[in-house]
Write the structure tokens for this entry.
Amino acid sequence: MKKRMTLMLSLLAVFVAAVATLKVGQVRAAISQSAFRPPPDTVTTTTVHQESWPSTLSAIGTVVAVHGVSVSADLPGVVDRIVFESGRTVKEGAVLAELDTRQERAQLAAAEAQAELSRLNLDRARGLREGGVIAQADYDRAVAEHSQDVARVGEIRATIARKTIRAPFSGLLGIRQANLGQYLAAGDKIVPLQSLDPILVNFSVPQQEVGRMRKEGEIRVQAQGATRPGARLKARITAIDSVVDEATRNVQIQATLPNPDGRLRPGMFVEVEAILDTSTPVMALPGSAVSFAPYGDSVFVVSRMKGPDGQPYDGVQQQFVKLGPSRGDQVAVLSGLKEGQVVVTSGVFKLRPGAAVAIDNRVKPGNDPAPKPQDS
């Protein structure tokens, strides 16, 4: 009985040892399987260098004409002649329309006849006065009557001239708002007229920023639809308002820029970027290096790491950063990076912290502060 028990225990011990050996082999195989690393992802990189970017201030502006009016009738009358076409360019002094002046011309003829008669009477009175025939008072009365008649002629001629509507300055006409034969009251609009070159841009800045603005300072203007996407027009500050708006605590700034092709029109909404006198130290990176996310923007920094097997490799670590303004292909990093760090510039969408990377910088993404696309 004891021999049988001993044999059973020996067989059980052998079985347990065999099972333990099998399990140890399986655990070692699993460990070796978990130590496997996928092949590295190929990326491009750039070394971070500190740069000094001019400080800027963004604002919303409105395009305003240097000269802009709605040409209107100065005196009431019926439109007798229209000599312009809507949308055409006109020179200063060009005739736009004429009102009916038949009545005024008849009055002018009568006034000129009366003035001629008073002139003849004055000549006679002058001769009689020299001969001592008439008194000085009669001669003075003749002089006054002639002066009144001459003034009346000038008044009627001025009325006729005011019924000829002319362009007060050179510019672009809008759409005609009066028709032939239409009666116009004083002040009724005939056509808008805008001077487009140069043109003004008005925008506001907070009162605390006024000290950083200066006359003749540079600004950049971008108008949706009026300029090539991403293109900015250069302008110069020509006026800074002398008062602060009590409602908004903002100060009005006015800039002037050339507009030879007339792309900018009064009333347009524009984005304004004012260049301030100060500068900001930044780390400039290509925009493709940044992983934008709602919880924070980040970049991947390449460094030397050790794997589970103790072997070193090139890996990446995610680093959250604070971004500033962009310029061309570049975006400014205000904090979160140190000079000399190597940052991934392409392929960031496929990376994760600790991932192995292979660097290949033969073809790198654009990193130009002022790019010029080939199709521009």
In short: Residues 37-51+280-359 form a domain with the conserved putative lor/sdh protein from methanococcus maripaludis s2 fold fold (CATH 2.40.420.20). The CA atoms of residues 37 and 174 lie 71 Å apart. The mean pLDDT is 83.
